[in-house]
Design brief:
The protein is globular and about 55 Å long. The chain has 236 residues and is an alpha+beta fold. It starts with a strand and ends with a helix. The longest helix has 14 residues, at 202-215. Strands 7-8-9-11-10 form a 5-stranded mixed barrel. A 4-stranded mixed β-sheet has the order 1-5-6-2, with no helix packed on it. Strands 13-15-14 form a 3-stranded antiparallel β-sheet, with helices on one face. It folds into 3 domains: 3-61, OB fold (Dihydrolipoamide Acetyltransferase, E2P), CATH 2.40.50.100; 74-152, Nucleic acid-binding proteins (OB fold (Dihydrolipoamide Acetyltransferase, E2P), Beta Barrel), CATH 2.40.50.140; 156-233, K Homology domain, type 1 (Ribosomal Protein S8, Chain: A, domain 1). It contains 4 helices and 15 strands. Mean pLDDT is 87; it is low at 31-38. GO terms for molecular function: RNA binding. It is found in: Cytoplasm; Nucleus, Nucleolus. This is Ribosomal RNA-processing protein 40. It comes from Mycena sanguinolenta.
Length: 236
Amino acid sequence: MSTTVLPGQHVPAQHVNLKLGPGLLQNTGNSRGDASTSASIIATRAGTLNHSANGSKWWIENNSRRYVPAAQESVVGVIIQKAGEGFRVDIGSAQPASLDGLAFEGATKRNKPNLKIGNLVYARVSLAHKDMEPELECFDAQTRKAEGFGELKGGFLVRCSLAMCRQLLDAKHFLLPLLGARFPLEVAVGVNGRVWVNAKDVRETIGVMRCIEAVDPDGGGMDEAGVVDFLKTLGL
């Protein structure tokens, strides 16, 4: 059963390997030295409290308009400036993120990606702090391999609500499997309200874009049957 929480409310998150996601903060200012985890985790935003099956990961779901970066989240960003040995990237947050030129698989000082202003990248938030600009990297932290991160070439960028992005990342959501069964496509979903789509022709790419906009909770919330009928009108 879902629980609604408000900013400042204590959250009963307890686990040996506890990981906090968006909307939760661990309060370390306990002068008595009390190690109780449940009393030190508070909500920083209003929304629905969620946790993984084993209780190790906790986060708050809400449909905020502006993306607030959190570590380990995947985002789709736009290069807006070359800064020294790296880049500044627009990820839809209050301030741009920084991306080091060496934060790519196999990158060296002599062999770095030649990104230009306007290029798209699929990246992971490596550092997120309210008093610092977020930092990105384009590889998996454990394997140091790209694992799908890096420059996104071609395709089309779709902007949608943050809630829609989280739905698309859910393996049980119907939309992407439904579209993938009809025609081949590549998709990179960022939790920052941006989805990159690449299909074999423009008509299919536009069809995917229109379907995402139609299913978006902020755009009508069309169900699976509605999408099937909608695709027929597009000839897909």
